[in-house]
Amino acid sequence: MSSRLARADRRLFQLVAGHHFPGGDRVLPRLSRSANHGLLWFGAAAAIAASELGGRRVARKAALRGTASLAVASATVNLLAKRAVRRQRPLATDVPVIRRLNRAPFTTSFPSGHAASAAAFATGVTLVSPKWGAVVAPVAASVAFSRVYTGVHYPGDVVAGAAIGVAAAFAVRRMLPRDALEPPAVRTAVGSPRLPDGKGLVVVANAGSGPSATPPEEVIGAVLPQAEVVLCGGEGGVSVPAALRQAAERATELGGALGVSGGDGTVSAAARVALEHGLPLAVLPGGTLNHFAHDLGIETMEDTRRALGDGEAVEVDLARFTTEDTSGTTDTTTAGDGGSGGSGDAEGDRAEAGGTFVNTFSLGVYPEMVRVRERWSPRIGSWPAGVLAAWHVLREFDPVELEINGARHRVWLLFAGNCRYDGMGFAPQRRSHLADGLLDVRVAYADRWARTRLLTGALSGTLHNSPVHGAALLRRLRIDWIAPGTRLAYDGEIGDAPGSLLLSKERAALTVYCPQAASRLTPLSSTT
Question: Where does the pLDDT of residue 175 fall: very low under 50, low under 70, confident under 90, or very high at 90 and above?
């Protein structure tokens, strides 16, 4: 800091140190200690997530946004800012003994990590829920002020930390999906049977999906009273594959459509069955996250009901992962060179083993996160389980070795999206097209200092230029020499990966009901 600013900062610190606030000596030191390691904010996030203020969904989103903002701010302060400016802390003798903390911090003074975390959490929460922001903001301001009042930071340290926290919250908002659902620009609109009130629709409802305590047949019946419902999942229930086959056969008899209500894994399985039986698919958002439904512009079951009544549908891509390549060709563009396209087309490929996905496929960190989350979710809830899973992966996970289109690599993560996702990095957001014929492939290489490089690139907006990040748009992707025990994940489902895989696309293969008029669609050209 310049000498003039430093002198002004010290004078302001002495002014605070010499002033006594009623109740401050008893409250502020305790409040400051409670925020050590973010414990105060993690507890606040848990309380917000479990509350009903502003709606359960908004509350959980606010808690998650606040925690993510805190994590980014904390990493920025501790990994970058404190190492760049090594300012000494104030002398402890400048404040009364009753105010001093039991354990003096040992890190440098500038900027204040506590202020950064407090401002980041409060701003992140406020950007989602102003009501909760009004509750959290005074606490955050008190924590920031307590760092000066207890004598461990100068006011300038707190101001700088708070500025970093606010910037981190806005950066997180930019990286995460937009709040408003926008109709995607799909390949083409197609006519499908009009099914008013669900007449001719046979819906497979996964009783084990979604946060609602109301039986799914009651929820569906209230919106689509003439639809037939086949329940699956739950204890002693029909298996998902059996229920889908039964529903598809019945829908074929009726000349109607196959419906699905459940998580993205159930939707992915239903998409495969609908394609096999030549049926249009109706997606009802009955899961927890409903990524595919949201990318279709479906937020509620009323949206699906409207599309069914009007016969509005679109063609979307279906992605496959198979254990053998029946065409004998692969796309030779690696995920690290930023190319797009490649030799061969995925249309017409069929596999003897493997699966399909409508959203994402991955190897590496994400499958491990899914495994831990699913283990703890029934015990502590999905949001705390997600936090626990992320912490476990960062502490315990090891890179995997595999061969990507002929090149050997050690990677933390290989991600493949069904169509191009908006935004950079490894937290995919929304898709603007659902039938572009491409796989959005992203790789995090496990080179030296990979974690630090990835974090620095994400914070600076230069992740696409980082040597430990690779991205490409491909039609096909070949993965070989996958180590035994490597786990894969697709649309929320997990399993053991075989020794080699081929990822490919079936372009515009699936017809899905979509609540948008043909005039609002943006057709893609026949070439990519």
Answer: low
Q: What domains can you pick out in the chain, each with its CATH number?
A: 3-175 (1.10.606.20), 193-310 (3.40.50.10330), 354-509 (2.60.200.40)
Q: Kindly compute the dihedral angle of the four CA atoms of residues 70, 72, 74, 79, in this order, to the nearest 10 degrees.
A: 180
C-alpha–C-alpha distance, residues 107 and 74, integer Å:
13
Give me the residues paired with residue 322 across strands: 354, 502
Task: Decide the pairing of beta strands 312-322 and 189-191.
Answer: antiparallel
- CA-CA distances (angstroms) from residue 402 to 278, 408, 412? 36, 6, 11
Residues 373, 377, 382, 383, Cα dihedral to 10°: -70
SS3 508: strand
- Across the range 1-5, mean pLDDT stands at 63
pLDDT of 131 strictly over 90: no
Which amino acid appears at position 204 of this protein?
Answer: V
Q: Which residue do the tokens 């002033």 mark?
A: 19
User: Could you please report the per-residue DSSP string of 269-331?
Assistant: HHHHHHHHHT--EEEE--SSS-HHHHHTT--SHHHHHHHHHHTEEEEEEEEEEESS-SSS---
**CA-to-CA distance for 21 and 285, rounded, in angstroms?**
53
| Preceding omega of 225 cis (within 30 degrees of 0) | no
HSE-up of 399 (CA within 13 Å, CB side)? 17
Q: How far apart are the first and last CA of the chain?
A: 53
Backbone angles phi, psi at 456, to 5 degrees: -60, -40
Question: What backbone phi and psi angles, to 5 degrees, belong to 163?
Answer: -65, -40
pLDDT at residue number 93: 65
Contact 515, 438 (CB under 8 A): no
Neighbours of 310 (CB within 10 A): 16
Amino acid at 12: L
Distance CA 351, CA 321 (A): 8
The three-point CA angle 220-226-228 to 5° equals 65
Determine the pLDDT at residue 387.
59
**Residue with more model confidence, 31 or 225:** 225
CB atoms within 10 A of CB 303: 22
Nearest partner of 265 among 359, 177, 352, 374, judged by Cα: 359
- Who contacts 477 (Cβ-Cβ below 8 Å, separation ≥6)? 330, 331, 335, 404, 405, 416, 439, 441, 502, 503, 504
Contacting residues for 374 by C-beta, under 8 A, at least 6 apart: 385, 494
**Torsion-angle region of 72 (φ positive above 0: left; ψ -120 to 50: alpha; else: beta):** alpha
pTM of the model: 0.59
